Amino acid sequence: MSDVDQGSLQYFQSRACNSQWAGFLRALAEELMQQMPVEELRAFFFVIGGRIATQNPLPGGASLADLESNANAYFNKLDWGWVKVRDLQSSLEFAHSCAPLRQAFGDNALSWASGVLEGLYATWLRQVGAANQLELHQIGGAEGAVDTLRFRLAHPSYFA
After folding, report:
1. Any idea what DSSP says for residue 16?
2. Rounded to whole angstroms, how far apart are CA atoms 102 and 113?
3. pLDDT tens string for the chain (160 positions)?
4. Is the CB of residue 117 less than 8 Å from the CB of residue 49?
5. Where are the domains of the chain?
6. What DSSP designation does 155 have?
7. Rounded distance between C-alpha atoms, residue 107 and residue 147, angstroms
8. What percent of the residues of the chain are helix, what percent strand, and what percent coil, each to the nearest 5?
9. Do residues 55 and 120 lie in contact, with contact meaning Cβ atoms separated by under 8 Å?
10. What are phi and psi of 102, to 5 degrees?
11. Which contiguous run of DSSP H or E holds residue 39?
């Protein structure tokens, strides 16, 4: 494991869900999974992420580096990990590591709980001027020991 990976893992494990909320959030997740299919849960969490972004708009910036820095300043305040933004020419990638979703909601919740980040990024990107014809989608599942989640902003044809 590289020094960066080891540092990420230590950060991730030290920032587990606050113990006063852990039991409540796990029970909430279990009940939600009993009441709603995964697709509806994901859509619900997407809406929650959008609401969070609306209540916490990012400061303006002139570059992707500014976007990344402003997002990371917000995530740092919450202990929600961090994001790395990359320009892939035909899309933008948002690789978010160390979000405490597994710790908060449990192993079985990652398929839908990550919708909160997708909604957050989608709304922030609209706020900073992303074109309406572009879409943001999660690509794959959580990767590695630090649950890196990847999101792409691209034309809908990219996802077809």
Report:
1. P
2. 8
3. 566 566 666 665 655 667 788 889 999 999 999 999 999 999 999 999 999 999 999 998 899 999 999 999 999 999 899 999 999 999 999 999 989 999 899 989 999 999 999 999 999 999 999 999 999 999 999 998 889 999 999 999 999 8
4. yes
5. 3-158
6. -
7. 11
8. 55, 20, 25
9. no
10. -65, -45
11. helix 38-55
**Cβ–Cβ < 8 Å for 106, 154:** no
Please count the other Cβ atoms lying within 10 Å of the Cβ belonging to residue 25.
19
What 8-state DSSP symbol labels residue 107?
G
Tokens matching residue 97: 């590591």
Helix (H) or strand (E) holding 64, with range, is helix 64-78
**Total residues belonging to the chain:** 160
Predicted model pTM:
0.90
- List Cα–Cα distances, 87 to 35, 61, 76, 98, in angstroms: 39, 16, 23, 21
3-state secondary structure of 153: strand
Provide φ and ψ at 137, rounded to 5°: -140, 150
Q: How far apart are CA 119 and CA 96, in angstroms?
A: 13
In this structure, CATH architecture of domain 3-158: 2-Layer Sandwich (3.30)
